Amino acid sequence: MFRLFLLILLFCCFSSLSYALDVGIGRGIESIQVPHAGKMITVQRNQDNNAVITGDFSKTSRNCPPFCIQPMAAAEGVRTIGELELIFFMANHLKDKSGVLIDARTPDWHKKGTIPGSVNIPYTHLRASAGADKFLIEDALILFGAEKEADGWDFFDAKILVLWCNGPWCGQSPEAINALLDLGYPAEKIRYFRGGMQTWLIMGFNTVKP
Q1: Are 103 and 164 in contact (CB under 8 A)?
Q2: 18 — alpha (psi -120 to 50), left (phi > 0) or beta?
């Protein structure tokens, strides 16, 4: 309920602004600025009303397995969010550095383009059984604000994480989420952007290349 209030408040703060763009993000929100690789990137939607998705993300069908439709909830206690909630997260938690937006895809996908503000932590870097050594896992947890202790990890000051991958048919971010939970990361500090890159592009948002 409190999160909904914050979203409404965010929208109301922008409601008195005049519109310079024909295609905004939401009521009163035209664009946002997010930090990415040491510079600020403007996130906004494509202004061409005739724009369509091309390439890999225009496909409707892929072999399953491995590209099977994912459940709405990635894991118990982990909240699934949509595009507006992601924009709110980017405009607030990325700005004050209380959150991390994670592109959980393998590097070959990341290199083709990513959501601004994302850091690439492949799902394979979070689970030993997927090939990650303890140093990769430790580096990720430290980046997320966890503190190493003699008998494990302290997640009290850990950041809020949003994980995403290629879309509702992609299992990479759910795999990363479950790996984090197995490591002890609190479920209430994890968000799942199930729509991933496919719905990001469907909404006409811009991407950046690393």
Answers
A1: yes
A2: beta
The SS3 of residue 54 is coil
List the domain boundaries for the chain: 2-202
In the CATH hierarchy, which fold is given to the domain comprising 2-202? Oxidized Rhodanese; domain 1 (3.40.250)
Task: Tally the C-alpha atoms within 13 A of residue 182's C-alpha that lie toward its C-beta.
Answer: 12
pLDDT tens for residues 83-141? 999 999 999 999 999 999 999 999 999 999 999 999 999 999 999 988 899 999 999 99
Contacts of 136 (CB under 8 A, 6+ apart): 125, 126
Which candidate, 166, 164, 43, 42, places its Cα nearest to that of 100? Answer: 164
Q: Is the pLDDT of residue 209 over 70?
A: yes
CB neighbour list of residue 59: distance below 8 Å, 6 or more residues apart: none
Helix, strand, coil share of the chain (percent; to 5): 35, 20, 45
User: Contact, 30 vs 21, CB < 8 A?
Assistant: yes
Q: Is 122 exposed, middle or buried (0-12, 13-18, 19+ CB in 10 A)?
A: buried
